Amino acid sequence: MIKTNIFNVTRLIFIMTAIIVGFRKGSEHKEKIGESASVFIHPNFVDTMGDFMDYKVAAVKKIRQNNYKIAILKEKLGENKCEATIENLKPLDELEKINIDLNFRIQQYKDATPEKWLEFKHHFNKDINKIGKSISEMALNSNSANY
User: Fold this and answer.
1) How many whole angstroms from its chain centre is CA 51?
2) What are the angstrom distances between the C-alpha of 10 and each of 40, 110, 130?
3) Longest dimension (CA), the chain
4) Which of 20, 30, 55, 108 has the CB geometry, 3.0–4.6 Å to 35, for a possible disulfide?
């Protein structure tokens, strides 16, 4: 896991360096041939990618914690084989699907503009907080049902 993260960070740094060097050479070439167009790199571009990598690590950790909590709740509820308990497993299945979707979204996110990143982060935070709250509520309900 750590080797994979180190590899991804190293790969990202290499790609970012290649992009920045490429943009610089491209703008030099344009100046040489007399074009008036220039290449614009957003000043927060590199900071945003660093923030994204830190956020992604934390988000994946939270998603794994959610998976663990869901598995524990399923195990607890699965001990009783009554109909009411089986019905309580359906919302957990839905939470599990949402959690899988969150993992897919964070793994597939590639837009590097600061504005898009902030928008993605806002919506992702809302979704991950919502699933965390739902898991906590189900845990409380399952504990109160056992007493």
Assistant:
1) 12
2) 24, 16, 33
3) 79
4) 30
Per-residue pLDDT of the chain (147 residues; tens, 9 = 90+): 566 667 666 776 767 676 776 655 554 544 444 444 344 445 555 566 677 788 889 999 999 999 999 988 888 877 665 655 566 678 888 999 999 999 999 999 887 677 888 888 899 999 999 999 999 988 887 765 553
Q: pTM of this prediction?
A: 0.61
| Separation between Cα atoms, residue 57 and residue 51, nearest integer Å | 10
Q: How is the chain classified by DSSP, letter by letter?
A: -HHHHHHHHHHHHHHHHHHHHHHHHHHHHHHHTT--------TTHHHHHHHHHHHHHHHHHHHHHHHHHHHHHHHHHHHS-SHHHHHHHHHHHHHHHHHHHHHHHHHH-----HHHHHHHHHHHHHHHHHHHHHHHHHHHHHHHHH-
Q: Is the four-CA dihedral 61, 65, 68, 70 of positive or negative sign?
A: negative
Tokens at 54, concatenated: 């830190």
